[in-house]
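Let us practice reading a record.
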Amino acid sequence: LAIRFGLTFVLLLPQLRGAGRRALRPGLPLGLVMLAIFLCETWGVMLTSASNAAFLISLCVVITPFMEWLLLRQRPHNMLFLACALSLAGVWLLTGGPQLSLNLGDALMLAAALLRA
């Protein structure tokens, strides 16, 4: 992660001259969110099983419409609720079903899914 973010910083640093400085205001918080996502995923994968990690990180797809609803105040179409439920059930079954246990790694993966959403 340090190499990835470090190289990105070095390569994009010349772009911060002149009008490029306007990118700092939205870019810095978004970059910090991305760093938080990657840190949560990296530590979470290390501390949980692969199936739990896959299930929990896939929740970002299901959570995203609800985050949009919360932030934009636009209620999703009714079919989306059914699609989310089916998606959740399918991923749950594919990743091991009822053996889901929660630990620190799971919490980190869930945090990453929420941040991604």
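A brief commentary: The two ends are 21 Å apart (CA to CA).
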